[in-house]
Write a structure and sequence with these properties.
It contains 2 helices and 7 strands. It has helices at residues 17-20, 64-72; strands spanning 7-8, 27-34, 37-38, 46-47, 50-58, 85-89, 94-98. The strands form 3 sheets. A 3-stranded antiparallel sheet has the order 1-5-2, with no helix packed on it. Strands 3-4 form a two-stranded antiparallel sheet. A two-stranded antiparallel ribbon has the order 6-7. A hairpin with a 7-residue loop joins strand 3 (37-38) and strand 4 (46-47). InterPro entries: PB1-like_dom_pln. Pfam families: PB1-like. Residues 27-86 form the PB1-like domain. This is PB1-like domain-containing protein.
């Protein structure tokens, strides 16, 4: 069965990952924050941005190049400087790392 490549979910569109991803263990969703900024340490937070969900991402095909393609779809105009970060959740806090 061919699965469509990733797509950005329209806002307020219902989505049930248990149903959609059933039988497709390599697919996942990215919660993507963009257009905002991080506050300074020690109270690091992301503010003034937009949140979008990118569904049907295949872990076997995903790379930073795919993330670049997703970001191009948001059409920020002049190629912006983009910094990618990811979260690591630990028992006592959340850590933010540059990618």
């Amino acid at each position: 069965m061919n699965i469509t490549m990733w797509h950005v979910r329209l806002l307020n569109t219902p989505f049930n990952p248990k149903v959609v991803y059933d039988g497709h263990p390599t697919l996942f969703t990215i919660k993507l924050y963009h257009g905002g900024e991080f506050t300074k340490y020690p109270d690091v937070r992301y503010i003034d941005g937009t949140v979008n969900y990118v569904d049907m991402v295949d872990i076997d095909e995903f790379s930073v190049h795919e993330l670049d393609a997703i970001m191009k779809g948001f059409r920020y105009g002049v190629p912006p400087v983009i910094y990618y970060h990811f979260l690591v959740l630990v028992e006592t806090s959340t850590l933010v790392f540059a990618l």
